[in-house]
Write a structure and sequence with these properties.
Layout lengths: L1 H13 L5 H11 L5 H20 L8 E7 L20 E7 L11 H17 L1
Parallel strand pairs: 1-2
């Protein structure tokens, strides 16, 4: 699956501490905006998320999957947007937003994301 591919690739690249560069990025990015305790909490949450991702096994889903992605996909990590997802459902709707991961939940992009989520919910209710 896509998640297994990503976590395996990250584990091979960064080793047992599960993506040291990302943890360093958290420290650098939020150094001025957060205190050390908050940064350490963010790192702990990131490690727990990575651990969960590495231990989760996705199964085939009979329904439709709405896949939300940002345009700035990290080169070499996700070669194709639907990589690994095609085997999880026969019906995948892809939404790509002109944003980076850190900005997808900020204005003005978040309004577009919300609009698409509402569309997905309404389409499911029909």
């Amino acid at each position: 699956s896509c998640l297994e591919y990503l976590t395996a690739k990250m584990y091979l690249k960064f080793g047992k501490d599960q993506n040291i560069e990302q943890l360093d990025f958290i420290s650098q990015r939020f150094a001025e905006a957060a205190n050390e305790q908050t940064i350490q909490k963010m790192k702990m949450i990131y490690r727990k998320n990575m651990n969960a991702a590495m231990n989760y096994s996705m199964e085939y889903y009979e329904g439709k999957i709405s896949l939300f992605m940002v345009q700035s996909i990290i080169k070499g990590v996700v070669p194709l947007p639907l990589y690994g997802w095609k085997n999880l459902s026969k019906d995948i709707e892809l939404y790509i937003f002109d944003s980076g991961h850190a900005n997808i939940l900020r204005e003005p992009i978040v309004a577009s994301v919300a609009e698409k989520i509402v569309k997905c919910i309404n389409d499911t209710a029909k």
